[in-house]
Design brief:
By secondary structure, the protein is of the alpha+beta class. The chain has two domains: about 170 residues, ph1033 like fold, CATH 3.10.590.10; about 120 residues, Trna Endonuclease, Chain: A, domain 1. It contains eleven helices and twelve strands. Strands 1, 2, 3, 4, 5, 6 and 7 form a seven-stranded mixed sheet that branches. The protein has a five-stranded mixed sheet with strand order 8-9-10-11-12, with helices on both faces. β10, α8 and β11 form a beta-alpha-beta unit. The longest helix has 17 residues. The protein is elongated. About 5% of the residues have low confidence.
Length: about 325
């Protein structure tokens, strides 16, 4: 019976497009070199311990278990997905080849499996239970056949699984797992806000970070959706000018960043918030800008809100209600 796997596309999904282009998935641990001849989990664990002596014993055991699954337990015909957090999409396919060690496909991920990709599924089309199961921070894991059944239904266009009954959610014991899932759910809630509410959310975030911030009146604003400064009048430095684009499917390009920069004064600091992310060229444009500018993606925004939520005022908390979750100290 075919199994269903989730493989992370590097930190923050940075290799998602490369996985799609190269028709494969990959994991790291390159110091282990070719693992084709390893025939037991015990030997795999010993190799990990020798190659990575700084690993905690538990981390070494977990790594060995994942690598063993990737090299040995996966097989041709198994179903597989990987995730792009910037576009909130799962790439769906089937494994088509055996494990191989190849240094020529990716510079830093050399353990490979070939895959035939069949399509993409929007995270928002899945039920909360499926999102929860797919939210693990592990490099490789099995989300469950019920989750893949939902993915198949959405991929075929037969059903929007978000409207279907929720499956029971299993309790999780790993704090990092819960933090990653909470991060994704915060992003889910942010995306439900209107463009106007997004501007007020960014203003609330800046207030929580110690600024006095206001949203500019509706109308032509020349890229000035939010203005923040220590005095609230823009007379004291730093004066932060924020552009807020709430278009989840549209990445901001270099021309838009250049246009925003052109409206700033030399003494201003720019903040460009885009829930659709930014192209690589937009990043280059920001890096070489004469005026200080920070690009904030949906991922970044969710992290900043979580880090500063204690300082949110009533208006900010009303836009994005969050609760604190306590975890036993280790």
């Amino acid at each position: 019976m075919a199994r269903f796997w989730m493989v992370r596309a590097g930190e923050g999904g940075r290799l998602f497009a490369e996985f799609e282009r190269a028709q494969c998935v990959a994991i790291g641990w390159n110091q282990l070199a070719d693992l084709s001849a390893v025939d037991s989990q015990i030997d795999m664990k010993e190799l990990v311990k020798k190659a990575y002596p700084d690993y905690h014993p538990t981390a070494a055991a977990n790594a060995a278990a994942m690598i063993w699954k990737f090299t040995t337990e996966m097989s041709a015909g198994d179903d597989i997905v990987t995730y792009d957090p910037s576009q909130r999409e799962y790439l769906v396919g089937k494994i088509t080849g055996d494990y191989r060690y190849d240094k020529d496909v990716f510079s830093d991920y050399h353990q490979l499996r070939t895959v035939s990709w069949s399509g993409k599924v929007d995270r928002d089309a899945l039920s909360a239970g499926a999102k929860n199961s797919l939210g693990s921070v592990l490099t490789l894991f099995e989300p469950g056949c019920d989750v893949f059944a939902q993915i198949e239904q959405v991929l075929s266009g037969k059903q929007d699984a978000a409207a279907s009954p929720e499956p029971d959610m299993e309790a999780v014991s790993v704090r990092e797992d819960q933090v990653a899932r909470a991060h994704e759910f915060i992003k889910d809630r942010i995306l439900k806000l209107s463009p106007s509410e997004m501007e007020h959310l960014v203003a609330a975030l800046l207030r929580a970070m110690g600024y006095k911030a206001r949203v500019t009146p509706t109308g032509p604003d020349r890229g000035r959706d939010v203005i923040a400064s220590p005095d609230g009048l823009g007379l004291q430095q730093p004066r932060v000018i924020a552009e807020v684009k709430h278009r989840p499917r549209d990445a901001i390009g270099s021309q838009q960043v250049r246009g925003f920069l052109g409206a700033l004064r030399a003494s201003d600091c720019g903040l460009y918030v885009s829930t659709g992310g930014f192209t690589r060229e937009a990043g280059y444009e920001a890096e070489r800008a004469a005026v200080p500018i920070t690009l904030v993606s949906l991922d970044d925004l969710a992290s900043l809100i979580a880090d500063n939520y204690d300082g949110f005022d009533t208006d900010g908390r009303a836009l994005l209600p969050l609760i604190r979750v306590y975890w036993p100290a280790s």
